Amino acid sequence: MSVSAPNPRSTPARQQLADSLRRLRAERNWSQEELAARCELDRSFVAHVERGARNISLDNVEKLANAFGVGIADLFLRRDPKGEAGTIRA
C-alpha cells in the first residue's frame, strides 16, 4: 500500500482521520472505490479525505465510521505500534 505524504495544511484531527481511514481500509483490503460505495460517497472525495485535504462534515464522518463498523470517536484515536489507542493532542 502506498501512503501519501501528510498534507502540510491539514489539522491534527484531519490528519488522524486520514491515517485511520487508510489503516482501516488496508486492514480490510478495500479499495477507495469499495469504501466510497459503502458510504455512498465519491471515490475522489474519499481520496482527498485520506490525504487530509478535505474538511469533512460530521455526516460524512458518520458514514465512514458506519462503513467500518466503528464509532466516530474511533476514527480520531491514534494507534501506537502495538495497536493501543490514545487521544489526539492538538
From TrEMBL:
Is Transcription regulation given among the entry's keywords? Answer: yes
Output this protein's name: Transcriptional regulator, XRE family
Gene3D superfamilies, from UniProt? lambda repressor-like DNA-binding domains
Q: Which SMART domains match?
A: HTH_XRE
Where does this protein have coiled-coil stretches?
A: none
Which terms does the record give in the GO molecular function aspect? DNA binding; DNA-binding transcription factor activity
Keyword list, A-Z: DNA-binding, Transcription, Transcription regulation
Query: What lineage does the source organism belong to?
Result: Bacteria, Pseudomonadati, Pseudomonadota, Betaproteobacteria, Burkholderiales
In terms of InterPro entries, this protein maps to: Cro/C1-type_HTH, Lambda_DNA-bd_dom_sf, TransReg_Diox_bact_type
Q: Where is the HTH cro/C1-type domain?
A: 21-75
* Transcription regulation in keyword set: yes
Question: What's an example GO cellular component term for this entry?
Answer: cytosol
PROSITE patterns with a match to the protein in the record: HTH_CROC1
The protein's organism comes out as: Paraburkholderia phymatum (strain DSM 17167 / CIP 108236 / LMG 21445 / STM815) (Burkholderia phymatum)
